[in-house]
Amino acid sequence: MKFFRGASEANRETQTFPKLTRRSNGLVEVSRRLDTDEQLCVLDIGSTSAANIRYLTERNHRIYSEDLLEASTDPALETQDEDGKRTLDSKRFLADNLTYPNGHFDVVLCWNLADYLDESLVKPVVARLWSTMKSGGVLLAFFHMQEAGPDAPCYRYHIVDKDKLEMQHIVSRKDVRKGPTGAHRPPDKTFRLQRVFNNRHIENLFRDFGSIKFFLTRDNIREVLVVR
């Protein structure tokens, strides 16, 4: 479990790729929830973002950060199922991650985690998120549409304003290489898109939640807002 780190630590993230911006209707809905004098607990799933820390703490909310995608690359998680196929140990993963009390979070920023996370972890992680959220809490998630290819870049999302996100192409820290001068250079491998969910799959993934709302965008992304 990680409470947010300082901005100075966040600024040490490797800046390998340029950042892009996009408008987010789902973020507009989340921002309405954040627009309150009540202090809310927010879980930001991804590497530490100074922008997200600033945006949320300026509104007097508490932010927690969990980089589940990076955590899923731990070789110690690898095992085999009954058929001898490679899989990840979801029980071990959840013993080390998302170890929060039940009903702790008002808002979860899940971003595009489900599209890039190993198949064996997706449903267990969503179930754990459900249990850590308060009744009436909201979760924002992004899903690629069918047109996306397996090389669709994985982005880290930084909140710029109530309707605007900055997107930074990310790679696993284990895949970052150094060039001959010691400077970081783009790796040969990045996080790869594992699957494309259709609407029925997404509804099934969040079937234990109270409601679900879809927002279609122009960049082949479905934004999904679910309420616990």
CATH topology name, in short, is: Rossmann fold
CATH class: Alpha Beta
Q: Could you say what the CATH architecture is?
A: 3-Layer(aba) Sandwich
User: How confident is the prediction overall: mean pLDDT?
Assistant: 86
**Distance between the ends:** 21 Å
Give a topology summary.
Blueprint: H1 7-10, E1 19-23, H2 25-34, E2 41-45, H3 50-57, E3 62-66, H4 68-71, E4 78-80, E5 86-88, H5 90-96, E6 105-111, H6 113-116, H7 119-132, E7 133-144, E8 155-161, E9 164-169, E10 177-178, E11 184-185, H8 199-205, E12 211-216, E13 221-227
Parallel strand pairs: 2-3, 2-6, 6-7
Antiparallel strand pairs: 1-9, 4-5, 7-13, 8-9, 10-11, 12-13
Can you describe this structure?
- The strands form four sheets. The chain has a six-stranded mixed beta sheet with strand order 3-2-6-7-13-12. It has a three-stranded antiparallel beta sheet with strand order 1-9-8. A two-stranded antiparallel sheet has the order 4-5.
- It is α/β, with parallel strands linked by helices and 228 residues long.
- Helices cover 25% and strands 31% of the residues.
- The model is unreliable at 1-15 and 175-188 (pLDDT under 50).
- The radius of gyration is 17 Å and the shape is globular.
- The protein has one domain (7-11, 23-157, 192-227): Vaccinia Virus protein VP39 (Rossmann fold, 3-Layer(aba) Sandwich), CATH 3.40.50.150.
- The longest helix has 14 residues, at 119-132.
